[in-house]
Design brief:
Rossmann fold; seven-stranded parallel sheet; alpha/beta; 2 domains; five-stranded parallel sheet; elongated
């Protein structure tokens, strides 16, 4: 099969559809699955060579995997790809996440959580609502603090730039232990203990893989400063849920911002907490909406389409994931 057939699996707006057409129609045939009759969709999958997916398990059933015999490339609209059934997909398929597509809004969200926690905004707001005017309890100055950013890709680097503007020092962890960004320290996960012990703020912005699941447990939390601030915008499963709850409950000066939860509607169909995190005054939560700003999906669509174009034209594709990291 010489002709390239791109199938967009999810329901797409006209504005986003126009971007795919503008960028890709010169290189391949485009099919939008939601626009064709249900009885035609099986044939569309059989003819597909490239798939564009938002939430693959909800878009393609396991019974349909056998139809993907001609698929060589799957572009995911989200940055994370841990929801894909890698073990069941034909092994030659290349998968790319939409890395960095949501970096700027997520970096702002991380900064907002860090400031809200350090400045005790929710705590003091609640006190005022209860008639308590507490002018004496100190909040914290970010300038001079050290932030450890675990996962120094697009999100981590965008966060570091904002934090530097506040006078913070940056310790970074990535896969290579190298970066062209200004940092006071850069290392790999082998340096996790050093970074956790050294930093006032720790940001989790790395993908959920076999190597990072449960990365932060009881021991790792014990390494951190008693008054550290921990922000998770990555995936809930990177942190041991029980260990975090017990640590936060027993360390009232330890502050946590949670945007990524353990059980969420996108993957699980529902939101659930096994422990009552939001009853604790030192926890700030948000509904995994750190990336959700006006125009973000248009930007993500353009970036995904440009990446598919690179694949079609033989240029270097961004965001290719290693199957062995997930199987």
């Amino acid at each position: 099969m010489d002709k390239q057939n791109i199938v967009v699996l999810y329901n797409i707006s006209n504005e986003n559809k126009a971007l795919f057409v503008e960028i890709l129609q010169s290189y391949a045939a485009l099919t939008f699955l939601n626009e064709i009759a249900p009885e035609q969709r099986e044939q569309a999958l059989q003819d597909a060579t490239i798939l564009v997916s938002q939430n693959f398990p909800q878009e393609v059933s396991p019974q349909q995997y056998v139809s993907l015999q001609h698929v060589t490339f799957i572009q995911i609209l989200t940055a994370g790809v841990d929801h894909l059934p890698f073990a069941e997909l034909p092994s030659p398929i290349i998968v790319a996440g939409n890395v960095g597509a949501y970096a700027l809004p997520m970096a702002e969200h991380i900064m907002a959580m860090t400031l809200a926690l350090a400045k005790r905004l929710l705590i003091e707001d609640q006190k005022l609502r209860n008639g308590i005017f507490d002018q004496r309890t100190r909040n914290r100055l970010l300038s001079g603090m050290t932030a450890g950013i675990i996962g120094f890709g697009g999100i981590g680097q965008a966060t570091a730039r904002l934090m530097r503007a506040f006078g913070m020092n940056i310790y970074a962890i990535n896969q290579s232990g190298k970066t062209t960004e200004p940092t006071e320290f850069v290392g790999t996960l082998h340096d996790l203990e050093h970074v956790l012990r050294s930093c006032d703020v720790v940001v989790l912005a790395l993908p959920l893989t076999n190597a990072t699941k449960g990365l932060i447990g009881k021991d790792q939390l014990a390494w951190m400063k008693p008054d550290a601030i921990l922000i998770n915008v990555a995936r809930g499963a990177i942190i041991d849920e029980e260990a975090l709850y017990n640590h936060v409950k027993s360390h009232p000066t330890f502050l946590v911002g949670i945007d990524a939860w353990w059980t969420e509607p996108f993957v699980d169909g529902t939101f659930r907490m096994e422990y009552p995190f939001l009853e604790l005054p030192n926890v700030l939560g948000s509904p995994h909406n750190s990336a959700i700003v006006s125009g973000v999906f248009l930007h993500a669509t353009r970036q995904a389409a440009e990446n598919i174009k690179r694949f079609l034209t033989g240029e270097k594709v961004v965001g290719i994931v290693r199957r062995e990291d997930y199987v």
